[in-house]
Prior knowledge:
Two copies of one chain form a homodimer. Chain A is mostly helical.
Amino acid sequence: MTIKEVSEKYNISQDTLRYYERIGMIPEISRTPGGIRNYQESDLGWVELAICMRSAGLPIEALIEYVKLYQQGDATFAARLQLLQEQRESLEEQKAQLEKAINKLNYKISRYEIAVKTGKLTWEDDDKCI
Amino acid sequence: MTIKEVSEKYNISQDTLRYYERIGMIPEISRTPGGIRNYQESDLGWVELAICMRSAGLPIEALIEYVKLYQQGDATFAARLQLLQEQRESLEEQKAQLEKAINKLNYKISRYEIAVKTGKLTWEDDDKCI
DNA sequence: GCTTGACTTGGAGTATACTCCAAGTAATAT
DNA sequence: ATATTACTTGGAGTATACTCCAAGTCAAGC
């Protein structure tokens, strides 16, 4: 699979794919005799992982570290486990922040829906009226 | 309330507080006769909102826009409602991405927990073994 | 054989969101 | 009164994550 095909399959730019490879966020992709990237199935797994984790906000550094550990073989199982657990923690925290913000937005939206109908914006007592 | 007190109350740097004010992400804070920021209760509401929304990843631009609309008065209720709804949508999407990534991490973690015990990393059939 | 289009590399540029700094003013403690 | 500390401003610098570009190589169709 060429970089173009991968780029279209996952809706990610070729530049970004090359960038991910260059910095070690995905392992080096095998090449044709002419030196052109030829993505294998297992490479696609890495690409999927990278996209999934990045879209959740996981830092690139963590993914680079994970790839490095992976390439060092079975001796790094424990280190990889720890890395994954740390990142899960961080995503769970992020999710909590997100939910707090969504709740706040929902409350505000409910007030503004009334305000648009009545022309008056009202708040509950402890609210700071913003 | 001085900027130092606000900074300590919300665990945010004074630089960031001034930055938020300068770019219009929170309204201008009233000053003492000497020109020093003197945060009122309502200002704290804005600070809280800014911190909450930023920590959820809401872009600064959206918050600046919201403050602008707010300052234009009651005529912007509908515009503010729309802005809030759009941002909620975007946070809901972000939450979905986050959950996908957390699920993936949980699956990997479960495999690695076994791997650390047994010395062998195993995957289900459709997995790309990463 | 040559043109077209896709590929390569390394490096520079951009966007977002802070974060730091210098130079100066103001308030507080002794 | 003076030293220390906190505050002010505007502008420059940093971190992260891309994103674009230039110059060159390679492969397929005509």
